[in-house]
Amino acid sequence: MGATVHSPIFVNALGHLAGVIAFTAFLILLARGARQGGPTRLWAPVGAAALAVLWNLGWLVVLLSDPNSPSREVVA
Fold first, then answer.
1. Distance, CA of 16 to CA of 63 (rounded, Å)
2. What is the pLDDT of residues 10-58, one digit of tens each?
């Protein structure tokens, strides 16, 4: 029974980890394109990708931290 209770948390953690990886890759591609003389108006996509990385990292911290931890409430 314990494994079935924690499996949604595991699936959510994997999803947020995938989001961190995907949006970090997106940020790297945007930075690479800007250095190679791409469009200069990259602030909106860079900001959106950075916020998405922070969102996914925050939820990973919340999911993986102790339920009684005060830092969990701060991050959430």
1. 10
2. 888 899 999 999 999 999 988 887 777 666 677 788 889 999 999 999 9
